[in-house]
Specification:
With about 240 residues, the chain is α+β, with helices and mostly antiparallel strands. It has a single domain, classed as Bira Bifunctional Protein, Domain 2 (BirA Bifunctional Protein, domain 2). It is about 30% helix and about 25% strand. A seven-stranded mixed β-sheet has the order 1-2-6-10-9-8-7, with helices on both faces. The longest helix has 18 residues.
Length: about 240
């Protein structure tokens, strides 16, 4: 996958609004035919990113004010899924590419993101696989999981490729995203997420025991772990 100007392993910590904006800009360039694919890695200031559907909860505004006061601003994204806590010790990975809408295309698109990451982790002695983990944050069928615990969450967004590019009728631009738990105090993330659910009077809860970070899987390798991980994941997705 070709490198793009934003694709660098030395990305600074971004605001969630800026990170999401740059992801959508990458997708739009593929939609418009300005590039066929691209990769964008970034880190995020502490926040809670939620799908727009949660805005309809009766307690949403009150919960957002409460979380802002606790240092966890709530940011709304346009895609689906569920609440995702963010912090600088997590790595966000977005790839964009063209994909025909054929049977099995959604699975294939997830694997286009997940398989290189799985192979990269395997080179470190980490055996990861895709699976659902009920009780984990923003659960889905294509979490990256290690021994039953969630290491990364994934999501997708599809948009029709612009007609002026000469694309086939069933050709779409896909943005596939992963957030990897790298080197962060995970307990604070899950506490913030559960505080939001409680403030919204929602029954959902994140189970801290169902998650694992790279720092935990690679004890003794935490010095520059985020930087090395950014470089490793960037390289594996461009090969």
């Amino acid at each position: 996958m070709p490198a793009t100007p934003e694709n660098t392993a030395t990305q600074p910590v971004l605001s969630p609004e800026e990170g999401l904006k740059q992801e959508l800009a990458l997708l739009e360039r593929v939609v418009q035919g300005q590039q066929s694919s691209g990769v964008f890695l970034w880190r995020c200031e502490p926040c809670l990113v939620v799908p727009r559907s949660l805005c309809r909860r009766p307690g949403f505004d009150q919960a957002s004010v409460a979380m802002q006061a606790q240092g966890w601003p709530v940011v709304v994204r346009d895609t689906g899924g569920d609440l995702t806590p963010q912090a600088p010790g997590l790595i966000n990975i977005a790839i964009a590419f063209r994909q025909r809408r054929t049977p099995g295309a959604i699975r294939d698109s997830y694997l286009r993101l997940c398989q290189p990451l799985i192979e990269s982790l395997a080179s470190l002695g980490i055996e990861a696989y895709c699976a659902s983990v009920e009780g984990a944050f923003c659960n889905g069928d294509y979490n990256l999981v290690v021994e039953g615990r969630k290491l990364a969450g994934t999501a997708q967004r599809w948009r029709k490729v612009a007609s002026h590019t000469g694309a086939a009728a069933d050709e779409f631009a896909v943005l596939a995203h992963a957030v990897i738990l790298c080197d962060e105090s995970l307990g604070a993330l899950w506490a913030a997420g559960n505080n939001f659910y409680q403030a919204c009077d929602m029954p959902d809860r994140i189970d801290p025991a169902l998650h694992v970070s790279l720092a935990e899987l690679l004890p003794g390798s935490t010095e520059n772990l985020i930087q090395h991980s950014l470089q490793r994941f960037s390289a594996c997705l461009q090969s």
